[in-house]
Amino acid sequence: MTKSNNTIPVVARQMLIPFILVTSLFSLWGFANDITNPMVRAFSKVLLMSNFEGSLVQFAFYGGYFAMAFVAAYFIKKFSYKTGILLGLALYATGAFMFYPSSLGHAFWPFLVSYFILTCGLSFLETSANPYILSLGDEATATRRLNLAQAFNPMGSLLGMFTAQNFILARLNNASYEEREALRAVDPEAFELIRQSDLAVIRNPYVIIGAVVFVFFLIFLLTKMPKAQSKDDNFSVKDTFSRLLKNKRYYEGVIAQFFYVGVQIMCWTFIIHYAEIELGIPNDTAQLYNIVAMSIFCLSRFICTYLLKYVRPGVLLKSLAFGGIVLVLGTIFLKGMIGLYCLVGISACMSLMFPTIYGIALDGIGKDAEFGAAGLIMAILGGSVMPPLQALMIDQDAILGLSGVRFSFILPLICFIVIAIYGHRNRDLAR
Length: 431
What we know:
The protein is mainly α. The protein has one domain: MFS general substrate transporter like domains (Growth Hormone, Chain: A), CATH 1.20.1250.20. It is 76% helix and 1% strand. It has helices at 16-36, 39-46, 51-54, 56-78, 81-97, 99-103, 109-135, 142-150, 153-168, 177-186, 188-222, 237-246, 248-269, 271-279, 283-307, 313-333, 337-350, 353-361, 369-378, 382-394, 404-407, 410-425, and strands at 398-399, 402-403. The protein has a two-stranded antiparallel ribbon. Strand 1 and strand 2 (402-403) form a beta hairpin. Helix 5 (81-97) packs antiparallel against helix 11 (188-222), helix 7 packs antiparallel against helix 8 and helix 9 runs antiparallel to helix 15 (283-307). The radius of gyration is 21 Å and the shape is globular. The two termini are 19 Å apart.
């Protein structure tokens, strides 16, 4: 007689320490993601750039995920999950430390290079950690185990948002974009002093997190971790890709993940823009709404993880996607604070989407897990592509009778529709 999913432990006692260590990585990349989202607005203000130019932060940040995912998968397949984690931590720390020399220049591109290297490290970490968590226990509880681990991601995100608000946005010079432009015209030296001071404010938290990540590197280096998979020198990349491309649930999951990451980054990045442009709320105050959104996301993640004991993943995914659709429509068409509240509330609907799409897509994938995980990490490219498109819309004064900011949320609406379709198509999957 087999055990039901409700009686199988999500994490076996002998796997608890490795599970805790790997789960800590989810908070580390959550911090990096959400200290960075507000920097789109910060760099635009400090370096006097358009919203589109500032959104290149997201292009570089999530482009690193895309560029390195399959390299990471190949590396992990040749060596091990632990080795992939170590290399990821090394790249993460290197990119963070590079913020120091970047802040000494007068250009934007060194910061973009720093972000890119940092997220090459995050790509290694996510490509390693997600399938590693799935493998640390019974397959019947794999999706719940990943949701539990992912529930700690928003804790790092909250810390990143708090750091951005209190140690970056609140400490930037309070001169507006227009005042900075005027100062540059009449007194370039005074403008340069303000800019250099602001770039140092942006730099310091990244250098500190680089030091923290280096400590984690040493901990993993000195800790013996279980080998969930063996080094494999005989696998065929061609055969692996062939199997993945024939797996409809998998490749549709990659598409759904692309749109999910896109909607997540858009909704969190442009809360500040919505609050400031639509309602006249200052940047550092607007960041409070981002923190509230992440708090809701975190609470909802734990609730949804519990609900997965009783509700099929695809059904819950579809239901929350429909909730997201309703709230995005409110963000677009309801003016004033109600529209902002709808935007904040979207986070409750996004909470379980990434790990649930991940778990559905990798269900029964077996020895192709590393490369399957890489495809899903490459789908994070949605966070690189979508925000600049939305920023272009925000830069417009009005579109079809709506402000550029409000109309721009048509992109998140499309994303939720795609996710709802994927949840509906996989509503019968039991795990």
